[in-house]
Amino acid sequence: MTTFGLRAQNNELEKKVNDLVSKMTLEEKVSLCSGRDDWSSQPIERLDIPWIWMADGPHGLRRAPATNKAGYGDQHPATCFPTASALSASWDVDLIYKVGQALGEECQALGVNVLLGPGVNIKRSVLGGRNFEYFSEDPVLSGELGAAYINGVQSQGVGTSLKHFTANNVETMRMFMNSDVDMRTLHEIYLTPFEIAVKKAQPWTVMACYNRVQGVYGTQSPYLLTRILKEEWGFEGIVVSDWFAVIDRVEALKAGMHIEMPHVSNVNDEIVLKAVQDGDLDEAILDKLVKEIVMVVLKAKSLDREGVDQKVDEHHQFAREVHGQAITLLKNDNAVLPISDDKYKKIAVIGQFASDPRYQGNGSSEVKPTQLDNVLDIIKAEYGKGVKVKYAQGYNLKDDDDYTMIDEAVKLAQESDIALVFAGLPLHYESEGIDRKHIDMPAAHNKLMAEVAKVQANTVAVLTNGSAVAMPWINEVPAVVETWLGGQAGAGAVADVLFGAVNPSGKLAETFPVKLADTPASFNFPGEQGNVIYGERIFVGYRYYDEKQIEPLFPFGHGLSYTSFEYSDIRVSAKKVTDKDVLEVRVKVANTGAVAGKEIVQLYISDAESTLQRPEKELKRFVKVELQPGETKELSFELSGRDYSYYDAKRDMWIAESGDFTVMVAASSRDIRLKETIELESTQQVPLMADKYTFAKELWDNPDARELLKEYMPNWIKGWTPEGKSMDEANIPGFFMEHPMIKFPYITHNEITHEEVDELIERCKSITYTPGYKTFKEVENVSF
Ligand code: BGC
Known about the structure:
- It is a single chain.
- By secondary structure, this protein is α/β, with parallel strands linked by helices.
- The chain contains 22 helices and 27 strands.
- It has a six-stranded mixed β-sheet, sandwiched between helices. A five-stranded parallel β-sheet has the order 1-2-3-5-8.
- Helix 4 runs parallel beside helix 5 and helix 18 (703-712) runs antiparallel to helix 22 (754-764).
- The longest helix has 21 residues, at 283-303.
- The N and C termini lie far apart (76 Å).
- Bound molecules: beta-D-glucopyranose.
- The site of beta-D-glucopyranose has 7 residues, from loops.
């Protein structure tokens, strides 16, 4: 089945929709712009327009018994897959596509037409309450995984809702918080994942966020919903509000938001009706939105496989396999893992999570699983032959301050050959609607780990958490396995990895810091008085740790395997390219160990010199590759214009500057294996955009503008020109070059007048140039 395309080959549907809308009363049109109840769209029976069912999302289906029931606790059982922070650690687009397919099948089985996910918001702060529901701190990784998820779900004739659009990165005051983010950062970091997902997968719906962005509610932003989403990215679907996010429905409709969810009362319908009647809202705007709504509804219904016998309980084993690809081996000194019966006869399983699993997060994404495994039972049943497995609870999930069980656990560890300590974050530590206050695990978990490590050299920390945690005992334990929130079948995958049936292949999609104070947003999170300043700008995640030269606990992209990989033979298809060319980068990766394994190969780009400040490196491509022992594969990546670009907020465009770029092939953001430098020759022409605040330096650096300057200020420039040299060789002091045009009459003692400045600005307006880094050469030791 192909992905849903609204515009493609839909002439018939379009005709039908136009006809239907022309027959609607104004009241009917208005009614379609809100939900019918908690989970469904508004039908119009008179015209045979059906309703569709929307349900959470993202890592499983949370379908209430009926569309008018909240569905917390009483929802229909469905497969609970690993949450997004686990899925992303797989870095596996094909796998996530398959997860999407499975979710789509379950939606079909339970009559759901639109699944409310994926969430591609950036993990700006390690404290973000919904980090477990989001993919990554990196925009490209988030966007690519989001696109794969959408394509998978939609391949089953079920829509998705790409959420929460956008700059929704904090839970504190989430209905109101203003994301005070500059335009460049907004584009490069917070819009890019949505852009990739929209362009590559065309979700049927996008969910507008609760928060404000640059002072405007996400549900009411013409810039975000119309200019960016529809006009620039070509989004074909409809925008639904996050639940209860709409403040002013008239403004929302004008901005391009289609459906207010859920149905609250008829008050907003009446307000919209009156706005149309009073001429405040053009009916043509309403007509356009309504047509787009009906398109989605009819398309969804036409793909609804109602009546076909479908089951939701067939994906448990698949969910286990998925989690096996996500588990991330962070440390494995002296090859403590994997466990084999020739190495260890007596195994201590310690920690309540082993018997009472934490497998998902709190909030709207909470799935009622079809079944639930625990790792203690699985280890005993599947790996217990030939070894003795004993369990100690270690801590009390109901009481963080209960330290009474540590002694018993220490004793067990002492008597065993290896101790597996299951610890992490209890459910109430990670929740939609609440940000974390710190990155610590409960003190009892940390103490347990440290005490066990004192008596058992083979202590393995097996962590369960949806987002990064501090590890104060890191130097005391030889091995750390990050298992994330693994979903209902995750326990099996954990056992598979510990015992080597599955070779771990996950890598971090988010940086693990040593301490909270090291993190990029630590000064500006969660915000104050309803405003959160995105003060770290584009330096989010690893971009920040690079810039500040801070050593993280574990860097972005890090993850170990039971085998080893060697990178060689980097080759680029050309040493000099334009932004219009496709550059091919090839590299060989070999499995140099004794077991089969999968490696996640990352490609970063670095701009040697840039007009605007840039991160040291930015992820552009990645691939997960499976290799048998001794096997080598050659991988190929393609790069082109946008990959070299930054977003220029003044010019409102992406710019790829001429100059040198380093292409880095890496095993993690801090483990660069191979590099190659290429020269980019930009073919872009960008406007100079001179105004009275343009600096002399900007004009001098531009050949055309320089000629004009020479025309208007001959004496001034001559004054800085050494004997016998041309004016182009003038040694103009940087001090003067830092003056904006508005100051020219003053610094030149009116050699150039205010009128001439205006004229110069006008003449500069038509100037365009090829972007490239320029260094203005200034005089050293100027004496006045
Ligand atoms: C959440 C969304 C969710 C919606 C419906 C909201 O509170 O932010 O992610 O899809 O509720 O449950």
